[in-house]
């Protein structure tokens, strides 16, 4: 299917000098027995709901497993399912760990233990990418960004037994050249039944909007790449066949699925034909057009995740959230609701402009507009972002276990930290009270969004500000 060309047509994509696909295949075929990789998704220490109960299938590690599994034996451990990395790692040659900031300290502990046992240890994911020097102390090699773009170099060096401290690709691989994720790694994991039934999928990568608190523009810059639509649709059909039904719920892991409107609209047209259901992250510019919401609804969209972030225009400006126009918020919401699409609305607190009134304002906005799935976080300067540089001197913790967006990272100008937390917790309890859920959800389709509200109700009931100081 023809769509416009990707922004970053990486026709010049090639491995670094001295590496080639032919050399890699030759070395791989000379392995006496295939080297054994242990791939790990570490569990974090956070009490956040997303890390307990039903967990989403980790597309990041599935994609790593897919490419590694072409040449090596793979064992896949997702600690969020309850399984733990064994103490004795003698059965493995390579321990490869994915990490975000939230689970970095756990990832490092696993890395340290593996180093002590003489293993090749590879750290990847957003946190090691942003803090290579720190991560290097807990592994043999750090991989910057996606594995696919640096795989030839990485795998060749593993086979030669000569690792470099950092692997960073000079150019990014076109997404259409990436393998279709092999879900068997996750589906065969111990306790795989704990995975949510939503199937993660990827159509695009990158987001040039450039919010200063987000890692995506730092890692992928202005790049916005997408897969051929045929590949995305073929993957959807594959899952329909595998599960023997048409109505499958897909969860797009894209940073911002609508950044190229023509591609997005064609994708919607095609999804409408195959009868799937889906949800995705999206920025709101573009959703003020009723025809976009109408087509999204027709294409099976159940829910869109939108970063409203703040109702304060000064704050939006200060974080460079160029996609948000305060004047459009209600219009965007009603366009989506008119087409049966629920909204996961992200709201952040703890900015210097925030006052106690900001919480009431947000509560009123959510209740009036009946936002189905509000998510609240305290603004967190994640390492490697421009926001981190800006706030460095005020940050209270560099303990990554606290980077769960529930601990406050700095005292805002117009409120004490204690007041911030008190209001933050109170707001969540209010929004997820049984009565408020009914007010926001009454008459809405009986699907998994109700279940999420029930889970949030249970989670917020237990919230207590003291825990997050
Ligand atoms: C989709 C998404 C979600 C989804 C699903 C997450 C999930 N189940 O994985 C949901 C909505 C649940 C979610 C929730 C949250 N998210 Co989120 N999310 C994303 C998003 C947009 C895409 C992640 C993704 O799956 N991409 C697709 C995969 C295939 O790409 P990838 O992860 O980059 O993996 C590739 C490479 O990194 C590399 N790689 C990864 N691991 C490894 C390991 C090895 C060994 C190697 C070699 C390579 C390698 O190769 C992979 C394949 O190409 C990212 C932004 C981003 N681009 O990373 C934010 C992001 C990960 N989220 C973020 C945050 C803050 C959150 C929340 C805290 C938000 C909140 N307040 O609720 C929660 C916390 C959830 C949790 N417990 O972890 C931050 C994390 C920042 C940080 N420094 O840690 C990010 C980076 C966005 C940002 N603000 O910068 N998120
Ligand atoms: S719109 Fe979303 S993905 Fe894009 S830069 Fe901002 S926070 Fe990151």
Secondary structure tally, helices: 18
Hetero ligands: cobalamin, iron/sulfur cluster
User: N-to-C terminal Cα separation, in Å?
Assistant: 53 Å
The CATH architecture name of the largest domain reads: Alpha-Beta Horseshoe
| Rg from alpha-carbon coordinates | 22 Å
Mean model confidence by pLDDT: 94
The CATH superfamily name of the largest domain is tm_1862 like domain
- Which strand order does the major sheet show? 2-1-3-4-5-6
Question: Would you tell me the structural class of the helices and strands?
Answer: alpha/beta
Strand content: 5-15%
Strand count: 14
Number of domains: 2
Q: Poorly predicted ranges (pLDDT <50, ≥5 residues)?
A: 2-9
> What best-fitting shape do the alpha-carbon axes yield?
globular
CATH topology of the largest domain: pyruvate-formate lyase- activating enzyme
Portion in helices = 25-40%
The CATH class assignment of the largest domain is Alpha Beta
Pfam families: Radical_SAM
Domain Radical SAM core: 191-413
Protein name: Radical SAM protein
Organism: Chlorobium limicola
